[in-house]
Amino acid sequence: MKAMIIVGARPNFMKAAPIITALGAARSGLHRLAFGAQEIDVVLVHTGQHYDAAMSDSFFADLGLPKPDVYLGVGSGSHAAQTAEIMRRFEEVVLAEKPGVVIVVGDVNSTVACALVAAKIAYDSNGSRPMIAHVEAGLRSFDRGMPEEINRIVTDHLSDMLFVTESSGVENLHREGVAGEKIHFVGNTMIDSLLSFESKADQSEILDSLGLREGGEMEMGRGGVPRYALLTLHRPSNVDERGTFLNILEGLEELSTSCPIMFSAHPRTRKRIEEFGLERFFVAGKDGAKGIRLLEPLRYLDFVCLMKHAAIVVTDSGGIQEETTCLGVPCVTVRENTERPVTITEGTNRLAGTKRERIREVVREQEGRAGAGRIPEKWDGKAAERIVGAILEELEKKKTEIAAL
Ligand code: UD1
Questions:
Q1: Burial level of 147, CB count in 10 A (0-12/13-18/19+)?
Q2: Residue from 52, 268, 322, 323 whose mutation best tests the ligand 1 pocket (most atoms within 8 A of CB)
């Protein structure tokens, strides 16, 4: 039996890593008693949607991911071109490998493209095909202008097993008519990674290399580390339109006069800064200097370390809203909506939209915020074990059904 797991873009890597580990445990027989004598071969497919050392390779190294068995090398392109190219190349791989299950994670173009291929493929004249498992199913921003929302909806409705991170996801899927037996509320594999790599991240040297260790003139913040903020922005709706990007940067000017802001900039964002002539918002890389400091995309362990000690995190990412909730770090999300409402109702996240006044206000509120939120239900580091357990059980059932025919 082959289990094929797909990764493509940066946020996929930390979501897939714990599942690969749990499948490895299944393969070495640890799940044998519970799930029969399944022999699992794990095939890791990297679509190459993200391909840079900084966006991909360093994550493989930090997360201890094995080298992909198959690399599709699709690279960048328009949504249609990128999705189509992944589909075209992935179809050949599925036909050659004939996996029993295809596991897709998250909401990127690689997720929907591979789910679509697996849903329509036919291994034989009976039309048998792999089971499709979607990890991080059910999240909804209710904003169809977001490419990820389209990817989430389509992937969920193609999947046979839907693994959900928070209770809102279960409600959304029920509302959309997804059969109850397909839905599994298991927790969050991104949090599995965070919890298992947190102590390794503590050994990161990023605070020293950014000059965030020695107090000097700087005010002290969390964990005996000088006070700084962390910023990430990459949503097309925020950075591809000059006016919106400008509003966000102006909204952060006040914060940048009170502490340094470390800005880990996605390649898309960096391109726009140059194109829109926004360089004046950034200070040169000087230790501890106030202002927004532009950094290359950070590697996973360095980013976790910076997130953990930040006084406040400002972001438009999905996953970072969840990681800050888990770490108890105040988060300001510069979007009008979130598909992860539990980070607001229970966690440390607040929505600020993209207007400068509102961003300033929410930053001030969040800076004064004392104490952490609650850790959401089942965010306990065991989501991947639950997922692999459920997949093996389902495959075992299928085998028994076929044998009984
Ligand atoms: C993708 C995901 C988004 C996720 C984000 C995380 C979709 C629809 N979007 O957006 O959900 O939050 O990844 O990073 O799948 N580029 C590089 N090097 C790389 C990869 C990209 O320079 O390794 C540049 C390319 O110029 C490319 C641009 O970044 O055109 C955007 O990359 P793309 O994968 O199309 O989308 P993201 O914005 O990264």
A1: middle
A2: 268
The two three-digit tokens of residue 172, written as one number = 């959304």
Nearest CA-CA partner of 179 in 156, 154, 148, 155: 156
Strand, coil or helix: what is 339? coil
Would the CB of 108 count as within 6 Å of ligand 1?
yes
CA atoms within 13 A on the CB side of 75: 1
Whether 43 and 182 map to the same domain: the answer is yes
Write the secondary structure of 101-118 as one string of H (helix), E (strand) and C (coil).
EEEEECCCHHHHHHHHHH
Cβ neighbours around 267 below 10 Å, total: 15
Which residues, other chains included, contact 127 with Cβ-Cβ below 8 Å and sequence gap of 6+?
Answer: none
CATH number at residue 393: 3.40.50.2000
Question: Which residue has the CA at smallest separation from atom 28 of ligand 1?
Answer: 268
User: Is the Cβ atom of 272 under 6 angstroms away from ligand 1?
Assistant: no
> What would the pLDDT profile of 80-110 be if each residue is shown by its tens digit?
999 999 999 999 999 999 999 999 999 999 9
9 CA to middle of ligand 1, Å? 7
The pTM of the full predicted model, rounded to 2 decimals, is 0.96
Query: Does the beta carbon of 270 lie inside 6 Å of ligand 1?
Result: no
Backbone torsion region of residue 187, taken as left when φ is above 0, otherwise alpha when ψ lies between -120 and 50, otherwise beta? left
Q: How many domains does the chain have?
A: 2
Q: Separation of 237 CA from ligand 1 center, angstroms?
A: 13
Q: 338 and 384 share a domain?
A: no
What confidence tens digit (pLDDT) does each residue in 272-321 have?
999 999 999 999 866 678 899 999 999 999 999 999 999 999 999 999 99
Active-site residue, 234 included: yes
> Do residue 125 and residue 200 come from a single domain?
no
Domain that residue 155 falls in? 2-187+379-404
CA distance 166 to 302: 27
Alpha carbon separation from 311 to 17, 59, 225, 355 (Å, rounded): 28, 25, 10, 22
* 108 & 6 share domain: yes
Is there an atom of ligand 1 within 6 Å of 10 CB?
A: yes
| Residues in Cβ contact with 371 at an 8 Å cutoff, skipping those fewer than 6 apart | 328
- On whether both 30 and 170 belong to a single domain, the answer is yes
